Amino acid sequence: MPDRPLITVVVPCLNEEACLPLLVDRLVPVLEPLGTWEVLFVDDGSTDGTLAALRSLHARDPRLHFLSLSRNFGHEAATTAGMAHARGQWVALIDADLQDPPEVLTALLARGAEGFDVVTARRRARSGERLSKRLTSALFYRAMTLLVDDFELPLDTGDFRVLSRKAVDGFLRMPERNRFVRGMIAWSGYPTAEVTYERDARAAGETKYGPLQLAALALDAVIGFSTVPLRISSWLGISITALAAVGAIVVVVQRLFLDLDIEGYAFQTVSMLVLGGVQLVMLGVLGEYVGRIYDEVKRRPLYLVAEASTPEKPADPG
Question: What is the signed CA dihedral for 289, 291, 296, 300, rounded to 10 degrees?
């Protein structure tokens, strides 16, 4: 980086006590040749010794800062908190588990210096992950390309990326409470490049994203960036109504003009159950959108900070 700007690395943490020393040992040697830097760890309500480890790291090296949130607000909120407090002209996002190699940051920053405001890290391979997770992840990204019309979500990318100060400031202007960070960054439309890499296995500890957490994140992504589920519900309702109208006409013709007795209680029962099920699904889809509207109008903060290693007050992230 020719002008040696300040680089802030944001690291969300949840029960990553075992990974933190390993991460610092690999991250600091990568950052040292790049000039002025700081690392901002965001403790998202950990219940192990993560916060104590962060205090110790900060005492050893003042460039290793930390925020401790008052409780677990979720990975997306923790990432937002880190970006809101980041002071760098370049801000890098990386998880603490070392699945995303810190050494790739050099290539990401080099691409940013070419004039890109966002540089994403695209996974070429994913070591140590179950086949089911790799398949569902690939399916999710490709499904999102079909569901979202107004922007393109980069394929096979997580939150591991580098953003310019302009891209960070643009992200912080987005006030929504149910957040999908990588989608919000893609929506902003700033010039974007990518670097491919091989994702490693987790260095220690256990993943915090089980099937339920991944499903919830996918639901936030779909509801937050697409109205296609509502359109599907509408077209499904129209189709069932049309089918029912045709069936009613057939029954009337058979009874009035052909003098046929109409039987079929089993068919009638199944039809009622199918219709009731479809109605409940449609109400559930509508309820998801209404629930998110309810979250937005409450205007509660995204997170609350219980402890911080620096006194600076950040800009309001919305």
Answer: -160
Tokens 């909120």, located at residue: 77
Determine the 3-state secondary structure of 10 from DSSP: strand
Q: What radius of gyration do the chain's Cα atoms show?
A: 25
HSE-up of residue 308 (Cα within 13 Å, Cβ side) = 12
Partners of 11 in beta bridges = 41
pLDDT in tens, 201-214: 666 656 655 566 66
- Two tokens, residue 103: 């050494």
Which residues, including other chains, have CB under 8 Å from residue 53's CB and lie 6 or more apart?
Answer: 17, 20, 21
Q: Mean pLDDT across the stretch 10-17?
A: 94
Kindly state the helix (H) or strand (E) to which residue 194 belongs, with its residue range: strand 192-199
Task: Give the pairing type, strands 118-126 and 157-164.
Answer: antiparallel
Do 36 and 5 form a contact (C-beta atoms < 8 A)?
yes
List the one residue out of 109, 66, 110, 59 whose CA is nearest residue 86. 66
